[in-house]
Every structure is written in C-alpha cells, then in structure tokens.
Description:
Protein name: Acyl-CoA dehydrogenase
Domain Acyl-CoA dehydrogenase/oxidase N-terminal: 6-118
Order of helices and strands: HHHHHHEEEEEEEHEEHHHH
Domain Acyl-CoA dehydrogenase/oxidase C-terminal: 231-378
Domain Acyl-CoA oxidase/dehydrogenase middle: 122-218
Largest sheet: 4 strands, antiparallel
Structural class: alpha+beta
Strand content: 15-25%
Cofactor: FAD
Amino acid sequence: MNFELTKEQQMIRDMVRDFAQNEVAPKAEHVDKTAEFPIETFKKMGELGMLGIPFPEQYGGSGGDTISYALAVEEIGRACGSTGLSYAAAVSLGASPIYYFGSEKQKQDHLVPLASGEALGSFGLTEPNAGSDAGGTQTRAVIEGNEYVINGEKCWITNAGYARTVIVTAVTGKDARGKNIISAIIVPTGTPGFTINSNYEKMGVRGSNTSELILEDVRVPTENILGDPQAGFKQFLYTLDGGRISIAALAVGIAQGAFDKALQYSKERKQFGQSISNFQAIQFKLADMAMEIELARNMVMKAAWLKDQEKPFSKEGAFAKLFASEMATRVCNQAIQIHGGYGYMREYEVERMLRDAKLMEIGEGTSEIQRMVIARNLGCGEKARVKA
C-alpha cells in the first residue's frame, strides 16, 4: 500500500492550508463571537476553485478527487470549524447530489454556478419530526400540471440563508407496498412561498449559517426533480455516505487545530521551574491526542480512496465519521485540560474548538446512527428501515 499523496493532492492541501491560515484563522474568533457567516471568505474560496475540487472541469470544477477534497476540508476546519462546516455542506450536500443524480441540463443550470464558486447550495432533509428517521419525512410534493407544489417544513439546514438552490426531500406518492416514495427536488431560494429563517442560537459552529425552511405552496417545474423520482431515498443515503467522509475530515481538522494549540502552550507554559511539556502527565496526553488524530486521518483517507475507486465505502465512511467525531471531542477536551484555567477562556480558542467539535457527533447521522450503519454492514440484526 502506498500512503503517499500525489503531487496534485499535495498542491491542493498546501494551497488550502496557506489560505486557511492567512484568511480563515484570523477571522475565526470574530465569526464565532458574532455568529456572522463569512461570506467574503467563501467568495475567495470560490475564486480559488475550492468549491469545485471534486467535480470535473466541464461543470466548473477543479477536476480533483475525494482525497483532495477531504484534505481541503481538514485544513479549513483546522482554522475554523464554522467555515469548515459550511464548506463541507456546500460541496457534499449542496452540489454533489446534482453531480451524482442530475440531468445534463440540471448540471449546467445548477451545478456549474456551485462548483465554480458563483453561488452556494444547500440540502433540505431534516425536519422537526424526521431527523435520524429520515424515512419519516412529512414534506409533501404533488404534481399540478407541469409543476410540483411543495408544502412542508425543514430545520437545521446548513447554508440555506445564503444559498442559490436547496435540494428538498419530499414525499411524492406511495409505492406498491404502500410505503412513502421520497423524491429530491431542486428549489431555487427565491421561489414564492419559500421562507428561510436563520434565527437559531447555537452552542458551536456559530458562524455556519443554520436555517429553518418553510414551504407553502412552493411551485417548481417538474423538470426540477433530481434523478429517478422513485429513488430519492437511495439518493440521499448515498449523499450522506459521502458527506460523512467530509464531516470526519472536518473533525480531524478541528482536533488538529486543538492539538496544535495544546502542544504550543505546553512548551511555553512554565510551572515548578520548567515547561509543562517536560511533565510525563502532559506528554502522555499529547501522545494519545496525536495518535488518535493520525488514526482518524488514515480512516478518512481510506474511505475517500474507496469512494474514488468506486468501491463500496458506506461502512468505512461510518467508521471514519464515528471515530473521528468522538476523537475530536476527546482531543479538544484534553486540549482545554492542558491549558488549565486559560483553556476555559475564549482568547485561547480551544474552548471554541470543543464547542464546534460536538456537532460532529450529531450532524450527518449521530454516533448512534453510525453504529447502526456499521452493524448492518456487518450483517447484524434484521433489515429494518434504513436511517440516516
């Protein structure tokens, strides 16, 4: 096995690292404190081609692969969890489904602006009564003439307040067994009846836009259906599988940022006449943190590689997301411990990283859902309704 990155992958990682440290990191504290979405940062990311890394050049992308994209997410997350989350959501959730399942016209009309960085996209799946149980979707879409009429409500939707389009999941009928057919529909955010509210007060990733969607008789052309109308459920499960790789990469980035702060502080902080990095208790903490980060990173890279090779990656994506997210919480918590009382203060930043890291255990499927996905891939239990 060859664990070396290609020259192209190294170039992308280094480019994004420079951008993240020079443009993203200096704004991270402000973004968290004010909960302002860093729109100017995203404009610059678009100009650099970062929003199109995993998409072909013919659709406005950079022609990179999933590994390159995961490396980019890690570097942005290392600098700012809020910016990293919105970046991951824009690519994995807002744009990727159109690339995977969209018609050529949909790709030209909707993917090109997203991949080229001209606009942001969003993915409206979660509802007040359909979170982990995505099959319990209550939003409805019925055909009237050549239009879908959509009614429903979505919650906790990333980037919707700044998005050009939202891919909305809705029940469009019943199958032969009487089960709901869930379809995915591309909805431009300026459509009449489509209301987007961004009023949430969050614990972490505060600068990542999180919105409530209300759809009241929202009409879109039937041509806005994404792929097979009967396959919307499978589509968003595949989308979430890929999204879990990006969330895992983001968790690794947040953890790496916290580790960097803890290591630097341990060398500068003196107690009992010497740097605390000389104390075995601190050394063991740092050793465990570094080990877990590297293990998680390797899991992310394997899942990304499998996806690039068009091999099954659902189990490995869940492995990576579960381990990396829980690892990030542990590492950030230990980073605060190493800082002591200073770690509890905003100016040392590690408390922000812990708050940001916690969402990684919830978004894109909770830790409990990841364990269910893994167990089912191992052949455990009866095959019940898949949850995401």
